Every structure is written in structure tokens, then in C-alpha cells.
Amino acid sequence: MALRMITAGESHGPGLTCILEGLPAGLVLQREGIDSDLARRQLGHGRGGRMKIETDKADLTGGVRHGHTLGGPVALRVANRDYANWEERMSPWPVEAEVPEVHLPRPGHADLVGTWKYGLTDVRDILERASARETAARVAGGAVCRAFLVALGVEVRSHVLQIASVKAPAAERELTVKDFEGVDASPVRCLDPEAARAMVAEIDALRKANESLGGVFEVLAFGLTPGLGSHISWEERLDGRIAMAMCSIQAVKGVSIGDGFDIAGRPGSQAHDEIFYSQQQGFYRTTNRSGGLEGGMSTGEPLVVRAAMKPLPTLTKPLRSVDTVSHEPTQALRERTDSCTVPAAGVVGEAMLCFVLADAYRRKFGGDHIDDVKQAVRAYEERIGWRR
User: Fold this and answer.
1) Bridge partners of 74?
2) Over the stretch 330-374, which tens digit does the pLDDT of each residue have?
3) % helix / strand / coil in the chain, to the nearest 5?
4) Residue 106 DSSP code
5) How many other CB atoms are found less than 10 A from the CB of residue 148?
6) Which end of the chain, N or C, is more open, meaning fewer C-beta atoms within 10 Å of its C-beta?
7) Is the separation of the CB atoms in 215 and 340 below 8 Å?
8) What pLDDT does 53 receive?
9) What does the angle CA 354 – CA 346 – CA 164 come to, to the nearest 5 degrees?
């Protein structure tokens, strides 16, 4: 049984919708948990004016009754408060007013190629759906997937490792869930206070120079059952599914798992995680260079995923472009924008990892009710002798 997630909606349209199909019945959901993740997505130094308008909350419109899933598709809707200012321009139905088209594609965005692909002339027909505002729907859906994982003993967290040229120092030990208790209090969601201050200064300096900033965030999953995913088929490999999910996040251009690209420069003796056994612990590792994945399957160690995000393509001092109708040189479209969204992207990364992992559990263990899933997980872990 697979889990499916689909979103709909535009950045300045009436709202965004997420539909999750494949969850078991009996899963307890908390309104506060979903809205908390939506609020966390809006955090971070360097956000723009849109975050002052929107206070995202999700309305459940299907698949849940009295706080429990029913086994059918779960539908969530996140309203766009800014739609009140865009109603004529983004109305789903024809309007009497003449709405001018936009013909100024931005380098680095979907604008130009999207108009070619779909045979459209108005860049806004592309940019509204391509906008990262769409991730609000994914975070809402990811919060439901998080509730499913928590019921199985899995916790997912994220933090920022780099913004522009500023990098947080490497952790001296493996992180635990407790290390993330104060991460959202940081203005850039960085676990190192000194690096966080430097990141804030970097954002301020480049924002004054009309620049946008990218960076790197890391997402971790704790408490996973070994054997999620499979080596049998390329499309069943968990690392491949994770990489696709992370690269689907707007502006993400690279993904690594565990020590990732660093492993490429090491000898084999320093690249892999040796295997040990004791009566007390069972099988265990003393390193986690693989990031909790071997052969396309989870090992039971913490899953560690990093994603690199490019600077946002909407700049306050627009780059050079060409008018798609007149073909005259011009400046790209200037829209209200953020300077840096790396901290928020980490929360979106959590949502996407929650979805991929929830899907992996559904594929492996099935179950029509959440209690069936728990029982199947326990039976499997007993069979392999896994000790949490």
C-alpha cells in the first residue's frame, strides 16, 4: 500500500490544497501540531512582507472525524489571505476588468520555459504555481505524515548548516532529538549560536546590496526501523526517493545523504560504517557515515539528509532579461520577495522526508488501522532481533 500526496493552488490564488491518500484509519491528529509546522515554515531572518500578511492555518475538509483519520483521503486547505489584494488578477473566473499580462521572465525561475512548454503568453500563469508558496500545502500534508511517524516512534528534525558563505562548525558528536529543542528560537534555525549571529549579519549585508542568499539545511530522522526501502529495484531504493523529494523543493539544487560528497575523497576504510555485535546491544555501528542508508534501505541508524539551496531568483534589483512579446532587452519581473528562506526550507525538508518515510512504512507494513501497522512493525522488529 503506497501513500500519495498531491497539492493544488497558486501563490496568490484563493488558497492551497493538499490531499493525502493511503493513511490508515484511527490515526490521531492534533490541530495544533499541523498549525505549528505551518508557523515554523514562516520563520527565519530574511523573510519578506508576505509573511506579515499570511498566518497559515490548515482546515481539514475530508478524511478526518473528531480528530481521527477514517482511512480515506485526507484533504487540507490553507487559505491565502493575500488573495484579497489579488482577487481580480487571480480570480478563477473571468473578470470585467482588463488584467495586463506579464512578459518579464526571471532568470532562475520557471517563467520562460514554462510559457514555452504550456503555450502561454502571460508569465503569471507559470510563476504562480511555480512559487515556493506551494510548499505551505506540502508542510500541512507533511505534518499529518509526521503524526503517523510519531505513532511509530519516529521523530524528524532539521537545522541550518550554511547561509551564503557562513558555515556552522561540524558537530563534535552525533546529534540527538534533544539537541533540537531550541532550534526554532534561533533567527536562522542554526544550532550553533556564534554561526547563527554570523548568518544574520550575512543576510543583513547582502540584503542591503539587493542580493538574495542560498545555503544548506540538514534533516534527520530518529527511531527508524531497519529495512525500509529495498535494493531489489532502482525505484524502490529509499535514497533515490529521498533525493527526488528533496530536489522537488523549489530552489534546491543538490542533495547528499550522510557524509555525501565528502566520502568521494576518502579511502574506503574511512568511508563505511563497521559492524559490531554484543549481547546487550545486538548489531550496532560506532559511526554513521552512510547517513542511515545502505543498499537503498534504512539501517536503523539516524537518517541524515542535506540539501543545498540556491539564492532565490526574485531580486530586489532585477537581473537582465528579455520581454517575451517585444523581444526587447529589459529587467526581469520584480515581485515582493524574501532575501533568504533557507531556515524555512529546512521545515519543508522535514515535511518531504516525513512523507517519504511514511510512504516507506505504508509500503512495507500496510495495515487498515494504525494498530495494525504498529503490530506489524513490532512483529518485524522481533523477527530481526532489532533493539531500539
Assistant:
1) 20
2) 999 888 778 999 999 999 999 999 999 999 999 999 999 999 999
3) 35, 20, 40
4) P
5) 26
6) C
7) yes
8) 61
9) 155
Q: What percentage of residues in the chain have a pLDDT greater than 90?
A: 91
Q: Pull the grid cell for residue 164.
A: 551564503
Helix (H), strand (E) at residue 321 = strand 320-322
Question: DSSP letter at 135?
Answer: H
- Tell me the three state secondary structure of residue 138: helix
Q: Is 4 helix (H, G, I), strand (E, B) or coil?
A: strand
> What confidence tier does 50 reach under pLDDT thresholds 50, 70, 90?
low
Q: Tell me the CB-side half-sphere exposure of residue 149, using CA atoms within 13 A.
A: 28
The per-residue DSSP string of 41-86 comes to HT-STT--THHHH----EEEEESEETTEE-SS-EEEEEE-GGGGGT
Element counts in the chain: helices (H) and strands (E): 10, 17
pLDDT digits (tens, 9 = 90+) for 133-155: 999 999 999 999 999 999 999 99
Does the pLDDT at position 52 exceed 60? no
Distance between CA atoms of residues 104 and 122, nearest Å: 9
Helix or strand (DSSP H, E) at 245: helix 238-247
- According to DSSP H, which parts of 119-192 are helical? 124-130, 135-151
75 Cβ contact list (under 8 Å, min separation 6) = 17, 18, 19, 60, 61, 62, 63
pLDDT digits over 150-204, tens only?
999 999 999 999 999 999 999 888 999 999 999 999 999 999 999 999 999 999 9
How many CA atoms, within 13 angstroms, populate the side-chain half-sphere of residue 31?
11
Compute the residue count for the chain.
388
- Burial of residue 357 (number of CB atoms within 10 Å: 0-12, 13-18, 19+): buried
Domains within the chain, CATH numbers bracketed: 4-384 (3.60.150.10)
